[in-house]
Amino acid sequence: MSKKKDKEVKEEQESVKDRVEEILDEAIEEVEEKEKDQENTEEDSDFGMSETELLKEEVQKEKDKFLRLFAEFENYKKRTSKERLELFKTANQEVITAMLPVLDDFDRALNEIRKTEDKNLLQGVELINNKFRETLHSKGLEPMNVEEGETFNADIHEAITQIPAPSDDLKGKIVDVVERGYKLGERIIRYPKVVTGK
User: Fold this and answer.
1) What are residue 194's DSSP bridge partners?
2) What is the pLDDT of residues 3-40, one digit of tens each?
3) Which residue, of 41, 63, 110, 122, has the greatest Cβ tally within 10 A?
4) What is the rounded CA–CA span in Å between residue 156 and residue 111?
5) For residue 103, is it within any domain?
6) Are strands 158-163 and 193-197 parallel, antiparallel or unpaired?
7) Domain that holds residue 150
8) pLDDT tens per residue, range 41-91
9) 160 near 178, Cβ under 8 Å?
10) How far is the C-alpha of 154 from the C-alpha of 187, rounded, in Å?
11) Rounded CA separation 90/47 (Å)
């Protein structure tokens, strides 16, 4: 029994010893932390800034960073929405450009049908032509009105040839329009082909 008691006493002493060591370790850590805090406050006071001022400065930096990021994001949104609008305006450009020769064929067909005396045929083709043009117009297609006698402008006209001007007032001007030009919104998708006088 005495051995058992001795053993229990030893275990109790060891556990008390362990607890004392833990308490001492905690106390040492607390003292070290207090010393560090004291050193930090001394350093802060050496630099003339308190912990509150440092925190305020840090918050200000983060606020500036956030504002810059927000401004960049707003610019990005504006730019992408502008690009998206431009894309929507010209998304069907390829299809409409492919339809332009069909419009030219309608013009030629109408000119030939007008030479015949068949009024019903002329009326039917005119109805189809008008419907086709209105559909393309609703998608943003606009014909470029170029007339004979206008001054030639290389930015909006495509000269396919130059002929001697029939009169002096047509020199450097458009003598004939070979193919009509078209715009899709503000963009020219086919330049009018013209003959100029020299």
Assistant:
1) 159, 177
2) 665 666 667 667 777 777 778 778 788 877 877 776 66
3) 122
4) 26
5) no
6) parallel
7) 141-198
8) 655 554 556 888 888 888 888 888 888 988 999 999 999 988 888 777 667
9) yes
10) 15
11) 62
